[in-house]
Design a protein that fits this description.
alpha+beta; 5-stranded mixed beta sheet; binds adenosine-5'-diphosphate; binds magnesium ion
């Protein structure tokens, strides 16, 4: 009997786990709460995230992944162990896992991810470059000799890549994505209204009313924060058009990254991409009008994948079925 086969998207913001034959079994923030007095792990995932910005000094709420690689090995391992324990009963065989990692991770960074998975209970751990996983999860025909362009806008980084014959032909990434958008919103609200808002409020604004391009009808939202001058709580009403302004800079940086990949794409593949368009994945793809924004700034059609936040994990689990074909991309990591 074989153990479970599992695909894992170990993101900077979210960890998503797909069990082959079962679909998504876990989707939680990559956040861990640690007691600083005795280095004990107090909570992981959703439970830990609820503590962000709300803990006494003796508790640290940390994100063990940064820019897609492990920033804190011990905490990452503990987080994976906890997530594995949630999805595999102790009687089951240890799972075979495929974990997505950013393009261009060093062998040391790759080994750290693999070791953390094995220490946490995996039997074997393979690595797959994120764009390959995302494209597989988005049902793109990456095994054919055609140009397939995927743009993954996550929390910490945006990654663009052109894939053909199971291999990455051109790629580029930038450390500007969802979190930089939240920071841009925080800075805008502080500058314009003298109002301090938290990280989570900024993200809520982005999701509730944010748009990459102006909307036909502005959405509005009442936003609570602390007045910078008087120090007291205050509420202002913010419109989508303001968020579009606030996001101009991070969005332009993402568009530049996408363009740089298109500029380096061999002509035959570029011609395929112009015909089929690029596919957007990651949580940032859910920003209103993100697809139209990239079309406007690159001249190439863009389509949001069906479940943009799940693509990478789904693709990682599918990758386990294509191991021989992916071998070149998977094992050189
Ligand atoms: P990662 O792979 O880095 O963990 P994800 O692909 O899970 O990141 O995306 C997380 C990011 O997507 C967060 O910054 C979150 O704010 C953003 N996000 C989620 N939903 C939306 C939405 N509807 N609109 C805009 N951004 C969103
Ligand atoms: Mg991601």
């Amino acid at each position: 009997m074989f153990g479970k086969q599992i695909g894992i998207d170990l993101g900077t913001v979210n960890v998503i786990v797909v069990v082959r034959g079962k679909g998504v079994v876990l989707n939680e923030p990559s956040v861990v709460a640690i007691s600083l007095n005795d280095s004990r792990i107090l909570a992981v995932g959703n439970e830990a995230r609820a503590m962000l910005g709300r803990t006494p000094e003796t508790i640290e709420v940390a994100r063990p992944m940064r820019d897609g690689v492990i920033a804190d090995y011990v905490v990452t391992e503990a987080m994976l162990r906890y997530f594995f324990s949630k999805i595999c009963s102790r009687l089951e065989r240890r799972p075979e896992v495929m974990i997505s990692v950013p393009v261009g991770v060093t062998s040391v960074e790759g080994r750290a991810v693999r070791d953390a998975a094995i220490q946490a209970g995996a039997r074997v751990a393979h690595l797959i470059p994120e764009p390959l996983a995302a494209a597989l999860g988005a049902d793109m025909p990456i095994g054919t000799p055609t140009g397939n362009m995927i743009v993954d806008i996550g929390g910490g980084a945006s990654e663009a890549a052109v894939i053909s014959m199971h291999g990455i032909v051109v790629s580029d990434s930038v450390r500007v994505a969802g979190e930089k958008m939240d920071e841009a919103i925080t800075a805008y609200v502080r500058r314009k209204y003298n109002l301090m808002i938290g990280e989570q409020t900024a993200e809520q604004i982005k999701i509730a009313i944010g748009s990459a391009l102006p909307l036909e009808e502005d959405l509005t939202m009442d936003v609570r924060g602390r007045d910078q001058v008087q120090g007291l709580p205050r509420t202002v009403t913010i419109a989508s058009s303001e968020i579009t302004d606030a996001l101009a800079e991070p969005l332009a940086t993402i568009a530049t990254t996408v363009r740089s990949v298109l500029e380096r794409t061999p002509p035959e593949l570029a011609s395929d991409i112009i015909d089929r368009g690029m596919v957007l994945a990651g949580g940032g793809a859910l920003l209103r009008n993100m697809d139209q924004y990239l079309t406007k700034h690159t001249g190439v059609p863009a389509n949001v994948a069906e479940e943009p936040m799940l693509c990478t994990a789904v693709g990682a689990s599918r990758g386990l079925q294509h191991l021989p074909l992916l071998r070149r991309a998977v094992d050189t990591l």
